[in-house]
Design a protein that fits this description.
about 725 residues, homodimer, Dna Ligase, domain 1, 7-stranded antiparallel β-sheet, D-amino Acid Aminotransferase, Chain A, domain 1, 3 domains
């Protein structure tokens, strides 16, 4: 590649990053958790794994071009892990805060016998304690398609790409001390007595290293492979993965797929082990390594060792070179235009070079002066992080802009080891993968399992009613009219009825006849309605309570009762103030991203309150309750109350029969039920799981797991 | 039922009518067609049957509440039958215009052995000639649900309903002469010499009657059943269906389902054998019969016989009673409000009472003075009707407001004996029934066979492209930008490209770079595009011809090339005039109801013409051809050219692979093809069969039949 002319922006933007973050689960005193890794996470879970110890959780993101997207997965998995172990904390440092007995360190159970054997071997060779050190692994790859395009005319394309990766690796080894200078964050040694401080104990020669230093060559892929073979032959290591080096080349056959960079301590200040800006900073550093002219490689190890062993407040071991590298990074970042905040990030790093107290290790040591305070300092951070993981528990962290039902589905999917990919965030289109099966979903429940025509049927209320009624299910009769005379003619056809303008401003033009009206009253009601709209609906009136039945594959999995929003007086506050208080509920947000919606102080609410003899300024007596709207829709502030266990089988059968008639595998059936009768008023092709997952009152119903089981079989 | 208080309007509006219209297929000389009934119509066809003779076609409508809907089916089946026998005519009268030899009358072949045996028996007993008489059977039933409601509180509901029908039958028998007076239309006898004229030879004692008059009682259902049993026992008839009476009670077990009224001659002036208003008139007459106080029944036969035998110009046999009946009908019709034109219809009938020349038979005799002119008169009507059946052959008569693809599907369905029900006309939702299977369809191709998620995938262009591209299919890369700087940054990522505002007024703001532009030109093009819209698309440019592949179940069934509309100069007309001529093509209409759309003289067309150096007022030289739009969409006047047999298998495989990747069973794949390459630019969940059924140039491809076979198996 012509180094002057390479399409840097394209290479940078298309490059993929994946992260692995290890962390120790500890109790409130910082002791190793003895609780086993949850079986439900599964050994095959692509996001949540165990490392060496059973309490050493490893959170893995899929490779992503976008740092934001990467961070979403990181956040989500942290939230899920933390919430799965209610009383535990994720230790924030790479080195443990306490020194557990070897017997309190439980090797992680693995269904794969080899994996377990390997861990036993490590325990024996290095001791269990050393294995508890945690870190971030930063996986990097160029976008293959982009490289294929760039090297399109080269006959030895694959070789050139391998060489690009190897050059990057060599340069990285040479300059990695600069990253360590900024990001090293293990000032305190793992074992007991040693009171020295380091920039990075974990990365130091005393840290997480092979017993004997292994000479690894990055000259070429072949040379790299040969180094490993030699180390195995010499007995320096017994497994390929035992090679504890900062740069691991990941290849398949003769082709390098990605590089794993392992020289990152956990950032203890970050709930996710790494700062979002640092991910971007490291990416730029890595890409620079591919294009920087090479210097002698060997010097790299020496610089790195010096850096790790240095005092956190000490100056960078090669300040001028570090500044040069920052400058080169700045030049590159200029080519990326204005869409990144790299310039600002680089400014911060520059400052840290001038003032080492601003490096990570520097910051830690500033706040935690010596090892005696380490445990408590670490715990205070872990508690803070736990709080962050616990915020808005209904939502899935990192995915908060998706519809809540989709968030919930992804949450369950990640917990169950089902692969998740967002195909269109604004449209809530996702792809789930499990074993060899893949399913694309829209708005959670719309899948390959339901047919296209069921969707159009349910979208069309009159066709839905026709089909339900052909199948012997009660539906309220409804007719619409564009003409007054025509409407008058159906007087005979209705008994109890509602007359309403098609587009109604709640209240205006609506007349409800709970008994058959006289013809004159009927005419008057029509006149009234037609004065509001040119199209008027005449509907059979069915009085009763409104329920939503969630039906999947001929089973009712959940039932919610829907009620309009209400306020209860305290003898002091106005209705307007009571509404403000109601809207402070963190479970209320606009859109579909929270369990409930705000109650707006708009015309329909005003009219409805007035119809009860109040205004926004009225003060309700203590205990006096009023509804704020006539309708119970969630979208206008209505609440749902779980009634799954209380509704008679008869009505469940009606809901199942309705779903069957509409040939739907998954849907929501809306039913009005009174003492004597029922009527199915609507069928919903997208039943909104959130209604049942997050009822305002009553038990949450897990409808996500059965849905995933419908998609993938047993999970 | 309290006769004063019955909900007449509801009963009338919900009552169901079904029609059967028999007709003789004849050649251009009026001779019996010797062509067999088409096998493809099938014996089980609910709409198109044969009666006694193979050339005696019987067109049957499903029972309908709405006369308009009923008439749709009548029209459609007539069009299908007529178009299936290109050189034949449907004889318009109930009596044949020629007297064929017995050997030229071929008994209809039936797969049902009993049915064939019955026809042989009839031929022997009555002679084949008599069996050639055709008519309309008018089937009537009350809506069961309506009656169930009315009689809800009656313990002997079923009995009361039967009695209502029987009373109706008795009154009908009593007053039917009035209908015959208006609608009798067989002035000329069937057999050779007789030169007498009748009001209705067919209904007269010489007409289509049993050899011996059979005494049928309508006192009760039991009595009616007994009459038939007695006639069978006496040997007056050998089959139940041999009972040639004007009123047949249709029952199952002890329950009357409907009544068949058989006393209607074909209306020779009407292409569909009956006048639309007369259907309404007869319906009102029938419903009146249910509520009219009874008179002695016996007198009915005498009045009817007198009427049938009367001269077409003679006065009604009981004028004052007929006027009374008309008055009663008028009273009833007043209760129906203003939504019917019954008042006007009744006025017409009143006039005909006063002037018998205005009755049907009167009109025939006025135009066709004697039997010698009968054949030529009948043929002239049949020719006129044939012309009507042949209009707009692409459309399905009676269903012209549906999308053309849906019309075509229904046309094939009716031809193949698949039941059709319109569930929502404006949304093109229909139900098809075949044997025990039912399928609901929207806009022709959207069915239970495709999955909901495929629909959402194809609706989302970026998700579609992602999936296609993961499956190794070329798609043009496309990115959209809301910011100028962000857009500038992807300069590297494109080679040939199109820059365009998201919402573009054809031409404005678009730049096409057929070679990679300089950065400055790229920037200028972006500035240009952003001056038109706040969102700008950058798309890889793929030059070539645009094709639509119609893919069903991994097979390409049709391929169309799409071209923009064009005009060719004649050296005199302006472009504006040439567009007018183009738009006179009857295949062009607005909406989706014709094979092509109008070319509007709007801004995009104006700009495009101007870009070629012309204006609407330019006169093109003779033979000079210009395109009228840049784009080839059918909706803006583009044309399609069938290329099914010309496109290489390679591209067909790409289309199939695309459909497979999208997990679609039926879809349209849009592909751009050039000498070197191709790109799939879009996938359509609703592939618009009409493109392939009605290409402007090239062979029509029947994609409807394979689709029906996909739904129902072999048809």
């Amino acid at each position: 590649m012509d180094e002057k002319n390479y399409p840097f922006s394209k290479i940078y933007k298309n490059a993929l990053i994946g992260l692995e973050r290890e962390s120790l689960r500890v109790d409130e005193n910082g002791k190793m958790s003895q609780a086993p890794h949850l079986k439900s996470f599964k050994d095959s879970n692509p996001y949540i794994q165990t490392d060496f110890a059973q309490n050493q959780v490893e959170i893995i993101t899929p490779p992503k071009k976008s740092v934001d997207e990467l961070f979403s997965y990181l956040k989500a998995s942290h939230q899920i892990v933390s919430n799965s172990y209610k009383d535990e904390f994720l230790w924030s440092f790479s080195t443990p805060g306490t020194t557990p007995k070897e017997s309190d360190i439980k090797i992680a159970k693995k269904s794969n016998a080899e994996a377990y054997k390997y861990r036993k071997y490590l325990a024996k060779k290095y001791g269990k304690l050393k294995q508890l050190m945690c870190g971030i692994h930063y996986n990097f790859s160029f976008d293959r398609e982009t490289l294929d395009e760039i090297y399109a005319d080269e006959p030895n394309k694959d070789e050139l790409i391998n060489e690009l990766y190897m050059k990057l690796a060599r340069n990285y080894m040479r300059y990695r001390y600069i990253l360590t200078c900024f990001l090293g964050a293990t000032p305190f040694a793992i074992a007991g007595g040693n009171k020295d401080v380091f920039r990075s104990f974990r990365q130091s020669p005393f840290g997480y290293k092979n017993l004997e230093k292994i000479d690894v060559s990055y000259e070429s892929l072949d040379a790299y492979k040969k180094s490993i073979k030699t180390a195995l032959k010499k007995g320096q290591i017994s497994f390929k993965q035992e090679l504890y080096v900062d740069v691991r080349i990941r290849y398949e056959k003769e082709r390098i797929n990605y590089i794993e960079f392992r020289n990152f301590d956990l950032n203890p200040f970050e709930p996710y082990g790494i700062n979002r800006d640092d991910i971007e900073f490291i990416k730029l550093f890595i890409v620079l390594m591919a294009f920087l002219p090479e210097k002698e490689c060997k010097a790299g190890d020496e610089l790195q060792d010096k850096t790790t062993l240095g005092h956190p407040f000490s100056e960078c071991v090669n300040l001028s070179e570090a500044k040069e590298i920052l400058n080169s990074m700045r030049e590159l970042s200029a080519k990326l235009g204005k869409s990144t905040n790299l310039a600002q990030i680089l400014d911060e790093k520059e400052k840290a070079l001038d003032n080492p107290k601003l490096t990570l290790a520097g910051k830690v040591l500033t706040l935690c002066k010596n090892k005696d305070e380490f445990l408590e300092f670490g715990l205070s951070l872990a508690r803070k992080h736990k709080e962050i993981y616990s915020q808005n528990p209904y939502s899935l962290h990192g995915f908060e802009t998706l519809e809540l039902s989709t968030q919930s589905l992804i949450k369950t999917a990640i917990s169950r080891g089902i692969g998740v990919e967002i195909l269109d965030r604004s449209q809530n289109i996702i792809k789930l993968s499990y074993d060899d099966a893949q399913e694309i979903l829209k708005s959670a429940n719309m899948s390959s399992k339901d047919s296209l025509i069921s969707y159009f049927i349910m979208q069309n209320k009159s066709v839905t009613k026709k089909i339900l009624s052909e199948n012997g299910i009660n539906t309220p009769k409804s007719l619409d009219f564009a003409g007054f005379d025509e409407a008058l003619e159906v007087y005979d056809e209705f008994d109890k009825l509602v007359i309403k303008p098609q587009n109604t401003n709640y209240g205006l033009g609506i007349t409800i006849f709970e008994e058959k009206p006289s013809f004159d009253n009927f005419r008057e009601a029509l006149t009234n309605a037609f004065s509001e709209d040119s199209v008027v609906l005449i509907e059979e009136f069915v009085k009763g309570e409104e329920y939503r039945f969630y039906v999947q594959d001929d089973k009712v999995l959940a039932i919610s009762k829907r009620e309009p929003p209400k306020v209860v007086g305290d003898g002091k506050s106005t209705i307007s103030e009571l509404i403000d208080i109601l809207n402070q509920d963190p479970q209320r947000k606009d859109g579909h991203i929270a369990p409930m919606c705000y109650v707006k102080k708009n015309e329909p609410v005003k009219l409805w309150i007035e119809s009860q003899g109040f205004s926004f300024d009225s003060v309700l007596e203590a205990g006096q309750e009023i509804t704020l709207r006539k309708n119970s829709n969630v979208s206008t502030g209505g609440i749902s109350i779980d009634k799954t266990d209380e509704i008679d089988e008869f009505y469940k059968d009606i809901a199942i029969k309705s779903a069957k008639a509409l040939k739907s595998r998954i849907c929501g059936i809306d039913m009005i039920i009174n003492e004597k009768n029922y009527a199915v008023i609507e069928a919903n092709f997208n039943p909104a799981m959130m209604i049942h997952l997050f009822p305002k009152i009553g038990k949450s119903r897990d409808v996500a797991t059965p849905f995933l089981e419908m998609l993938f079989g047993e999970i």
